[in-house]
Amino acid sequence: KSANPQWREQFDFHYFSDRKDMLDIEVWRKDNKKHEELLGTCHVDITALPAKRTNCLELPLEKHPGSLLMLIAVAPCTGVSISDLCVCPLGDPNERQQITQRYCIKNSFRDIKDIGFLQVKVLKAVDLMAADFSGKSDPFCVLELGNDMLQTHTVYKNLNPEWNKVFTFPIKDIHDVLEVTVFDEDGDKPPDFLGKVAIPLLSV
């Protein structure tokens, strides 16, 4: 019930500098559980923002009244990576030794927010639901930890996709839950949901 909402939420997106990406933002209104209405959209060209500083942006909503006030910072992030199975970052003995040293007892209070790393190897899915008329799906996998999100590539026309990717996340809260969701890519339409698993970090 507000025309001037304040959310004050922070989201971390992993942006790889070799890509030219736009940040797409949508504002929605909910009447009830069933009815939603798009109030406007805006776009931010990440490559045009100065790095290593917080940029305060007032973004007018396209074709709708109103604007969004956002703080966007492009900053180097250590520890986040996507790699092939054959070049697994924590598989390197030197890397493991450095991490063991970094998180040993005597260094445990050096940075309270730096809890550790989570490495996830996404190998394959088996017997997925067919989302297309052809009896196949175009599946990709999304990994979410807190407000961090990474995803695999899409394997087209396959119900038993193999991704063989390694994802490494820095852990900020040991009570977070790793959510792994499989979607079917559907062109310009929103992807179809194919399944999900949730793994509490405390169970790892």
TrEMBL record:
GO terms for molecular function: calcium ion binding. It is found in: Membrane. Signal peptide: none annotated. The keyword Calcium applies. Residues 1-59, 93-204 form the C2 domain. It is a multi-pass membrane protein. Keywords: Calcium, Membrane, Metal-binding, Repeat, Transmembrane, Transmembrane helix. Pfam families: C2 (PF00168). GO terms for biological process: regulation of neurotransmitter secretion. The keyword Metal-binding applies. GO terms for cellular component: synaptic vesicle membrane. Belongs to the MCTP family. This is MCTP2 protein. It comes from Phainopepla nitens (Phainopepla).
